[in-house]
Amino acid sequence: MAPGGPPPEIRIDQLTGQRALLAPGRAGRPREFEVPAAEPKPGAAESCPLCEGREDRTPPEFWANRPGGGEPDTPGWLQRSVPNLYPVLTGPDPEAATARPAHDSGLTSSADPLRSSARASEPELFRTASAHGAHEVIVNSPRHVASLAELDDAELAGAVAAWRVRMAARAEDASFVHLCVNEGPLAGSTLPHSHAQLFALPFVPTEVARERERFTAYNERTMGSHLLEDVLVEEVRRRDRLVAIDGEAALICPWASRSPYEMRLLPRSVEQRFERDERGGPLLGRALAALAGRFGAVPQLNLWVRTAPRGAAEFHWHIDIAPRLSVRAGFELGTGIEINSVAPEQAAAELRESLPA
Fold it and tell me: Residue 117's pLDDT is what?
């Protein structure tokens, strides 16, 4: 292996406390950052169940944006939400109203067998719990397009607004609502029609709980300051990881980016819940344009919305965008520590240069 480049360094993510290894010297390895094209399958558009006019090929819809009115499960919609045909969560828990804890830490729960140390509880080491909740698909456009980058400004704004509508509809009954977009086979997508997936979870995932606890601890330690707002102020001052900024939101490459060209979009002032805000849509379009400019086409990617879990007193929503440009290997899988071969400062500089004028 040929040496070269800056020495590796360890950085700690301000929001989770997790470590990332930056190893810029690895960026010159063979085949680094080739952007594979997601080849469309022959006849995919003709058979796509998410296209307008094929509403009978999906489960009955939860919701649709039909400006001209009309019956459910008929054409004339701009965005549409339906149950996932292969859900990872099923139905509401009939005992949820009485059995669900008011505050799920995400770090321990009633289903965790290690909460009890009694020998008599050994069978609890193999305890299971029903995966109650909701799993739905939000179709971003009636047009058969594979990527958010193919939507025009109005269509992208409509898609983001639909995400907010559906997240708000699920927030009341879920401990946490997770929305993500997977684009391309490398990102886990099986349908080449732009859509988001929404998961209404009956618990708070550990990584989200870490963020919530660090937001709260920072707020208490600083007597009222907000963690991500202070991070953004410093990022704007330094500008070396800032990709773009407008009057509503900012786009940065995070300090401890876990993957090459990872970006984070966040509102310029504190709002806990994405679904209660209206900012960020135009800058999301700029993020996609920056990736297209840097790589010649938007890479396959994962995008997710981080909104406050239920009951959080302190939080700051953000959207994370992770292009699929590298593969997690044995070190990452075995340690939980990501290796990033492109420093966020370099990534931000290249993305800024790639933005259209």
Answer: 57
